[in-house]
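Project outcomes to date are best conveyed with an example. Our students and postdoctoral researchers have been running inverse folding experiments weekly, and each run begins with a structure described purely in tokens. The record below, which covers 235 residues, was selected by the lab manager from last quarter's runs and is presented without edits.
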């Protein structure tokens, strides 16, 4: 427990020193404020000028907001993992009582919990809390798994922190999945099904459907594969 506490305090110091890591935490909340206070005015202006309102797409904006939270947190943890790998700290943890497996559990469990809590806070802050718990919680739980998933993906694909930043930017493609779910016709839905965020969006838009079961299985398989790849790396 003391080793986990020491790691947590070290992480807090690192986050406080790095503006980019701070953005990963506050970014979703800032977006929530934009949705709550700016979107209604923008929607009203567009409706007056062009007859097109944005508020009717509230569910889509909710999906995008919820998808951004684990993506940002996953980027944060991925950069931390890459930084510690560059400093050869992973080899150090492997020979401590915490061991590499314990270290990995800590690194992956913390963003899951933080993502779940921060997603619900962001959803409420955005003024989108009209969605029921039955609708939001399965999708939020599923999305929370994407934080460690994206962190591990960055770590196994990128060779260093610079490459990790490039992978993090490319990860923005995950935000396209809610659009595929929302706008594409049935025969084109397979385009989005290849991305984990698609299943979370469908679980949110159609609670109680197949997406909850399929989505959790999909996330579990991908996460398991990435964990095996990470554990097999030589650090």
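After processing, the design step wrote out the following sequence:
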């Amino acid at each position: 427990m003391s080793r986990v506490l020491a790691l947590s305090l070290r992480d807090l110091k690192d986050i406080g020193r790095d503006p980019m890591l701070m953005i990963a935490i506050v970014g979703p909340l800032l977006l929530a404020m934009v949705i709550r206070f700016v979107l209604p005015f923008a929607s009203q202006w567009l409706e007056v000028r062009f007859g097109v309102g944005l508020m009717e797409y509230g569910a889509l904006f909710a999906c995008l907001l919820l998808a951004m939270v684990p993506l940002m947190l996953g980027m944060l943890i991925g950069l931390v993992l890459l930084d510690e790998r560059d400093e050869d700290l992973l080899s150090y943890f492997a020979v401590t009582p915490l061991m590499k497996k314990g270290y990995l559990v800590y690194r992956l469990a913390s963003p899951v919990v933080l993502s779940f809590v921060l997603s619900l806070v962001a959803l409420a802050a955005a003024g989108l809390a009209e969605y029921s718990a039955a609708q939001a919680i399965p999708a939020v739980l599923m999305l929370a798994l994407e934080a460690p998933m994206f962190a591990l993906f960055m770590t196994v694909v990128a060779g260093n922190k610079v490459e990790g930043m490039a992978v993090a930017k490319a990860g923005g493609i995950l935000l396209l999945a809610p659009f595929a779910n929302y706008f594409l016709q049935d025969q084109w839905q397979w385009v989005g099904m290849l991305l984990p965020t698609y299943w979370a969006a469908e679980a949110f838009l159609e609670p109680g459907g197949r997406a909850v079961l399929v989505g959790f299985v999909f996330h579990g398989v991908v996460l398991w594969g990435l964990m095996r790849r990470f554990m097999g790396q030589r650090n």
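The chain has one domain: 2-231. DSSP finds 13 helices and no strands in the chain. The training component of this project remains on track.
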